[in-house]
Design goal:
Layout lengths: L1 H23 L10 E3 L3 E4 L4 E9 L2 E5 L5 E3 L3 E3 L2 E7 L8 E9 L2 E9 L5 E3 L3 E4 L4 E9 L3 E5 L4 E6 L4 E6 L7 E9 L2 E12 L4
Parallel strand pairs: 2-9, 11-17
Antiparallel strand pairs: 1-3, 3-7, 4-6, 4-8, 5-7, 8-9, 10-12, 12-15, 13-16, 14-15, 16-17
Amino acid sequence: MKNILYLVMSILVVFGCENDINQDEPIGPSVQSTFKISQNSKIISYSGDSFTISITSSKEWITETKYNWIHTDIDSYNGSCDVTISVDASDERSERAGEIAFIQDTDTLRLNIIQEAKPFIDLASEILETDGDGGTFDILFLSNSEVEVTCSDEWIRLIRHSQGNIITFEVLRNMYSAREGHIMICVTSDKDISRTIKIKQGARV
């Protein structure tokens, strides 16, 4: 009789432990959080631009940036969506870098933005005067971009130019009255960025 009683009690204890274990197990499949962005870097022209990235998420997230030249059309959202990012035009002569942070709980995703430098041309002199005999001359210039050099008249002849350094040109002998022409330097990738050197030659003596 005692053996039967011990057997019954043992079965009840085991059954009770199984119930306790089952109560701690989750009901149904576990849900894992998803958080990702469609790209993590972007190169932008100095003139500025807007572009869109996709955010994949199953929770609420926010955006943060400390750069006042980078803007987003959404500061926070719950779930997945597209975000439009705008970058202001830059007047900087060197490239600049910034970032946007997308934050969900303890996870942070970063989008790095590089903006190209604005092209420039600086001249040591904007005018050259010579007598009727003409000659060969050098003009110093500085640029952070590839440039093209053109002469306005046949009596001004380009000999050579080194990128971001020196323009060497010849002014032919003047057999007539005083005359003026010019040399134009423009950025190859943006012809609107240009500088002009005025050439003034006296009359034949």
